[in-house]
Amino acid sequence: MKEFNDLLDNYTEGKTLPQEFYTNENIFSEEMNRIYFQKFNWLMVDHVTRIPNPGDYFLFNVEKESIIVIRGRDQEVRAFYNVCTHRGSRVCLEDEGSKKLLVCPYHAWSYDTEGNLKAARYMPDDFDPKQSGLRPCYIKIYEGLIFLNLTQDQPINFDDFIQPLKPMLDIHKTSKSKIALRKKYPTAANFKLVLENFSECYHCVPQHPELCSIHEKDWVYTMGGGVGTAPKKETDEYLKKIEPWVEDCKKRGLPTETYLETNEFREKGFSRYADRTPIGNGHLSQTRDGTPASTLMGTFKEFDGGLTQTAFNQFSICYFTNDFGIMFSFKPQSISETEVELIWLVDQNAKENIDYNVDDISYIWHTTTLADTRIIENNHKGLMSRSFEPGVLSKTETGITYFYNWYFNCMNISR
Ligand code: FES
Ligand SMILES: [Fe+2]
Fold first, then answer.
1. Which of 54, 253, 271, 361 has the fewest Cβ atoms nearer than 10 Å?
2. Which residues contact 402 (CB under 8 A, 6 or more apart)?
3. Which GO terms describe its molecular function (predicted)?
4. Which ligand 1 atom minimizes the distance to the CA of 105?
């Protein structure tokens, strides 16, 4: 891809990307094809409790694609491209609902909840409706989490993909949780600026006083952007300091091994991550005052004040405290629009306004994400200026360079 390579010549390691990476429509289109719709990109999109009954569905909309995720009469959750097999109209127009039949709003072809075409008027005698069901999209359910893969090819094996993340994920028993709250943050910015923002915590002290008052200062500095994104000396000091907490976790049979993507898999486009650290400051949860906001979730018998960070890829991430989880999705809509969605999970038996209330569980990450939306949009606006030149990254923004290297690698993968 010549255009991309020409642009790459203008990139200097240790600086931000040149402007055209954020403004060139051809680049955006290639990014979607080479990254987002690639076979390695299993996206965590929602939780099964969103669609508890047969016929319940929701749409997963990203770039030009719309996917219908629907529970069939047989209770199985399936995914279909929201494209009528007659002349291509979108079939479902509302973001969510419950239907016995999916009726196309154009010529009224009707599909059942399993995607089979059930009615099409005045068709030729040799027309076989069995050949015209909705086109399926790859889907996997893991521990109640719904994953989609939008490749037009064969996706990579899901079990292989999820394997290294299982130890950290499984202790939170997402299959025994339910959705407590969902919030969307439409962000007027290129998706890379959203992901860059999530790769560093340099901005945390000035922009996220709520998050920083909960976590220990050295956690924010060394771990806020993930292990290895701050200078080694301070990171090692922090890891040494939390050793007693880690040892205690081991004694209780909890996973303590950080998963950093291996080079072998990074070269294939993977970007998985998992770690578990104490929130610190004696705090037990990510709440306004650090006290729990719901009942224990998962395998925990007591609060240990840990925070688990699990990244399935750059576009879907989960955080868990002992009492709730947050699913983050970053969905590119166009070159300058990204939808950020947060879904809060609590234990399936927790009762709203008795065991938890949504303000308490969402306070930290709602305020933090609102601030992120604001700073990312300002970043996008400023970066559009004719005067913009790539700037020098700080010592705690190595996560951004890591992100760029992953990105360059993906863009070259199938050349
Ligand atoms: S496009 Fe759907 S029925 Fe014609
Ligand atoms: Fe932030």
1. 253
2. 199, 228, 229
3. 2 iron, 2 sulfur cluster binding; iron ion binding; oxidoreductase activity
4. 2
Helix (H, G, I), strand (E, B) or coil at 76: coil
CB of residue 90 inside a 6 A radius of ligand 1 = no
Domains (ranges, CATH) in the chain? Answer: 43-149 (2.102.10.10), 164-413 (3.90.380.10)
SS3 state of residue 142: strand
Residue 328: φ, ψ to 5° = -105, 130
Which of 85, 102, 109 should be mutated for ligand 1, with most atoms under 8 A from CB?
Answer: 109
Question: Is the model's pLDDT at 415 over the cut of 70?
Answer: no
**Cα 235 from Cα 227, distance rounded (Å):** 8
pLDDT, mean over the chain: 96
Neighbouring residues of 110: CB distance < 8 A, sequence distance ≥ 6: 101, 102, 103, 104, 117, 118, 119, 120
Tokens 């989490």 found at: 145
Closest ligand to residue 205's CA: 2
Q: Among all ligands shown, which has an atom nearest to the Cα of 120?
A: 1
**Total residue count of the chain as it appears in this document:** 415
Write phi, then psi, for 48 (nearest 5 degrees). -60, -25
Q: Which atom of ligand 1 is nearest to the CA of 107?
A: 3
d(C-alpha 142, C-alpha 164), whole Å: 14
Q: Using the mean position of ligand 2's atoms as its centre, give its distance from the Cα of residue 135 in Å.
A: 38
Q: Which atom in ligand 1 lies closest to the alpha carbon of residue 84?
A: 2
**Local confidence band at 413 (pLDDT 50, 70, 90 cut-offs):** low
Q: Is the ipTM of this complex over 0.95?
A: yes
Report which ligand 1 atom has the smallest distance to the Cα of 88: 1
Give the pLDDT of residue 154. Answer: 97
- pLDDT tens per residue across span 14-43: 999 999 999 999 999 999 999 999 999 999
What is the Å distance from ligand 2's center to 208 Cα? 7
pLDDT beyond 90 at 228: no
d(CA 288, CA 357): 13
Which residue's CA is the nearest one to ligand 1's atom 3? Answer: 107
Quick: pLDDT tens for 41-54: 999 999 999 999 99
Query: Which residue's CA is the closest to the ligand 1 atom numbered 4?
Result: 107
